[in-house]
From TrEMBL, chain A:
It is a multi-pass membrane protein. Residues 254-475 form the ABC transmembrane type-1 domain. One of its GO terms (cellular component) is plasma membrane. Pfam families: BPD_transp_1 (PF00528), DUF3708 (PF12501). This is Phosphate transport system permease protein. It comes from Allosediminivita pacifica. The chain crosses the membrane at residues 6-21, 42-65, 164-182, 202-222, 258-279, 291-312, 332-354, 387-408, 454-479. It is found in: Cell inner membrane; Cell membrane. The keyword DNA-binding does not apply.
TrEMBL record, chain B:
It is found in: Cell inner membrane. It comes from the Bacteria. GO terms for molecular function: ATP binding; ATP hydrolysis activity; phosphate transmembrane transporter activity. This is Phosphate ABC transporter ATP-binding protein (PhoT family). Its main location: membrane. Part of the ABC transporter complex PstSACB involved in phosphate import. Responsible for energy coupling to the transport system. It comes from Allosediminivita pacifica. Signal peptide: none annotated. Residues 20-262 form the ABC transporter domain. Gene3D superfamilies: P-loop containing nucleotide triphosphate hydrolases. GO terms for cellular component: plasma membrane.
Length: 487, 267
């Protein structure tokens, strides 16, 4: 039975449970709602959840575990026949077996072969590869008898497992509904039981989010450790050369990242902050109603569009000004892709980020502060400079740090705007590259995930993660400290 | 009404020079007509109290006296208000300069998140009142002494103004307002957030301040108005109903509405 039908069945069971439990509760209270502990719907809901939640959990766990168990069991056939297989060969053969099994079950499903035909098939008598190719399943090599046996075992166990799964899940659903139904009585605290289950469901959602994060971090850590076993840590963290294959020094990439981010912040912070001050302190209501959403549209532009803008507009413009034979008559820039190009465009991207956060923070400064200052005969700009900005400063610093962590993690703009050359240089008109773009290039193409060239991506990712996490934590700490001031 | 005559006769009723003179003042907040045709003469070296039920316009009128209503977009003011014979709503008058001359203390103490010293030095610095640090120190000390706060904070002028107690914060705000050497001091319910002891301290301070300033205080407490003021104005629904010696208002009001309010029947 496929998961779809299982879901339908337990859904029906649960709905029946809802209706039944609700009736039972009403009849136990002899039809008077006032005699019930909870409203009738809570009794129904209790039975519904009891029929659904344990069954769904069982379904999820079973579906996750079954393939692993089957794989273990099938692997033993192959290892018995070929005891000298390494892990690489084994995984190749397993892929073949899996494809074979899937192809054969599709063939049965489509009616091209019967179940008996498949289980009687022998590799030395039938051209399995040819027959499957006719059915649209391509296999990478001729099928050996061991592989066919394994595939047959695979199909056998999974058919058996699927049936068992259907029985178990439906049984769990029936059992849960039955227990809830039997418990249903006018004094049963169904409302509290539903409350408890609701809390558990919310907790589960929170746990999934947290566990995913933990999983990602752990995978980063393990792969980073693996990389550092293959490549000396000292050369990675302090190496000044990067060529993507034999020399994997972090410093030029980190320098490129920081240099571009600094230029972006030099652009974004003054523009964003001044825009925020204008919007929150000077702009009239109609202007604000128009300008604030307009500024936030800028935040909605996908970064790849900014990247195009960098590549096609800003880069050539800068080249015209600072390049050979350009408007300034200097020869600082040799190509359109440069730190400056990416930095300027990234700065524009960050403007709405800085201005929107700063605007909120400036608005959070109590009106009493402004009144106090105006009441002493201060002008608007004196009030902003001497009262509002000092009061809002920690929050603004937090906003800037959050913007910085975005700049560091930004990829698309630098891919298109900054070039690909890893370089340690002070000239902002030279092409450089960043950590994020190198992660992209290390993993695209034919990457062997056991080589240091590919694993270095995880180490780079880990480095970025640590930097941005540090910045975010620091920013949140500062913002939180600021909030306490007026509460 | 004979029984009320005794306190009335004891009050100091000598006539003083008029400091602020308002004629035909109307205030609109958008469509709302908040102040209706108010005429009032406020004397120098006197504490004038504005009383009345909530929303009667007394705070609004107070804020007209230093043009704080200018910071509200939808507020519109008509009529004229003269301070020392000069119309403060004249185009030539800079509201920013005016506010240095007419200081204001707010309902909720609002010290800046700066040191006590910087809170008081804020106004003098902006208006360039001190030539050097020594002069500024002197101004700050004088203002804090006038605010009756000097003895409590002289050893911790660098501490944050927001760290003081509620009553101390309000006296800091008074000291801050006094530091710019205003001629008029407006107080918008200065004691409403304070406990009785702090209130007593601030009231005592107000009584001392009248030696140098014309003080206008908005208050919800009729006892407070009776304690600190020499003149009282009663506002009701945007109208100035009655304005007279405090003793007269509380013992022998002419208008029915005033009598109802002070005896607790309305408001």
């Amino acid at each position: 039975m496929s998961p779809f039908w299982i879901l339908i069945v337990i859904g029906v069971v649960a709905v029946l449970g809802y209706v039944g439990a609700r009736r039972r509760a009403m009849s136990s209270a002899s039809g008077n709602i006032r005699n019930l502990h909870s409203l009738p719907n809570f009794y129904g809901m209790n039975a519904l959840l009891a029929g659904l939640v344990p069954a769904l959990l069982l379904l999820a766990v079973w579906s996750a575990v079954q393939p692993i168990v089957i794989k273990q069991s099938v692997q033993s056939i192959i290892l018995d026949a070929n005891p000298d297989f390494g892990s690489g060969q084994l995984s190749l053969v397993m892929t073949q077996v899996q494809r074979l099994a899937e192809g054969l079950s599709n063939a049965i499903g489509a009616g091209d072969l019967t179940r008996e035909q498949v289980f009687d098939m022998r590799a030395d008598l039938t051209d399995v590869r040819g027959r499957l190719a006719d059915l649209g399943v391509a296999l990478s090599g001729d099928v050996t008898q061991t592989e066919l046996q394994a595939a047959q075992r695979y199909m056998g166990i999974s058919a058996w497992g699927d049936t068992l799964r259907a029985f178990a899940v439906i049984a769990a659903s029936l059992l849960g509904t039955a227990i809830a139904f039997v418990k249903t009585d006018k004094d049963y605290r169904a409302r509290n039981a539903v409350e408890f289950m609701t809390r558990m469901m919310l907790l589960t959602a929170a746990c999934i989010a947290i566990l995913t994060t933990v999983g990602i971090v752990l995978s980063l850590v393990f792969n980073t450790v693996e990389f550092l076993r293959l490549y000396p840590a000292w050369d990675f963290f302090f190496g000044t050369r990067w060529n993507g294959t034999s020399q994997l020094g972090l410093l030029p990439l980190l320098w490129g990242t920081l240099y571009i981010s600094i230029i972006a912040l030099i652009v974004a912070v003054p523009i964003g902050l001044f825009a925020a001050i204008y919007l929150s302190e000077y702009a009239s209501k109609p202007v604000r109603a128009f300008a604030k959403p307009a500024l936030e549209v800028l935040a909605g532009i996908p970064t790849i569009v900014y990247g195009l803008f960098a590549l096609l507009t800003v880069g050539p413009f800068l080249l015209d000004v600072f390049g050979d034979g350009g408007a300034l008559g200097v020869d600082w820039m040799s190509g359109a892709t440069a730190v400056m190009t990416a930095g300027l465009v990234m700065g524009i991207m960050l403007v709405p980020f800085v201005s929107s956060l700063s605007d909120d923070i400036i608005n959070a400064v109590p009106q009493a502060m402004r009144d106090g200052s105006y009441g002493l005969g201060a002008t608007q700009s004196e009030t902003i400079r001497q009262v509002i900005l000092p009061a809002a400063l920690p929050g603004i610093v937090g906003a800037i740090l959050l913007a910085a962590s975005r700049a560091i993690g930004e990829t698309m703009i630098v891919v298109l705007g900054a070039g690909a050359a890893a370089r340690l240089s002070m000239n902002p008109f030279e092409a450089m590259t960043t950590v994020t773009t190198r992660i992209v290039s290390q993993l695209t193409g034919d990457a062997d995930f056991t080589s240091p060239e590919a694993l270095v991506a995880f180490a780079l990712g880990m480095t970025l993660f640590v930097i941005t996490l540090g910045l975010n934590v620091f920013a949140l700490y500062i913002v939180r400290k600021y909030r306490e001031q007026y509460e | 009404m004979d029984m009320y005559d005794a306190p009335h006769t004891e009050r100091d009723v000598e006539q003083k020079e008029v400091k602020i003179s308002a004629r035909g003042v109307q205030v609109y907040y958008g469509e709302t007509h908040a102040i209706k045709d108010v005429d009032v003469d406020i004397e120098d070296n006197t504490v004038t109290a504005f009383i009345g039920p909530s929303g009667c316009g007394k705070s609004t009128f107070l804020r007209c006296l230093n043009r704080m209503n200018d910071t509200i977009d939808i507020a519109r003011i008509e009529g004229e208000i003269l301070i020392d014979g000069e119309n403060i709503y004249d185009k030539r008058v800079d509201p920013v300069q005016l506010r240095a001359k007419v200081g204001m203390v707010f309902q909720k103490a609002n010290p800046f998140p700066k040191s006590i010293y910087d809170n008081v030095a804020y106004g003098p610095k902006i208006h360039g009142m001190a030539k050097n640090k020594a002069e500024l120190d002197e101004i700050v000390e004088k203002a804090l002494r006038r605010g009756a706060l000097w003895d409590e904070v002289k050893d911790r002028l660098d501490a944050s103004g927001t760290g003081l107690s509620g009553g101390q914060q309000q006296r800091l705000c008074i000291a801050r307002a006094v530091a710019t050497e205003p001629e008029v001091l407006l107080m918008d319910e200065p004691c409403s957030a304070l406990d009785p002891i702090a209130t007593a301290q601030v009231e005592e301070l107000i009584d001392e301040l009248k030696a140098n300033y014309s003080v206008v205080i908005v208050t919800h407490s009729m006892q407070q108005a009776a304690r600190v003021s020499q003149k009282t104005a009663f506002f009701h629904l945007g109208n100035l109903v009655e304005f007279d010696e405090t003793g007269t208002i509380f013992t022998n009001p002419r208008d029915k509405r005033t009598e109802s309010y002070i005896t607790g029947r309305i408001g």
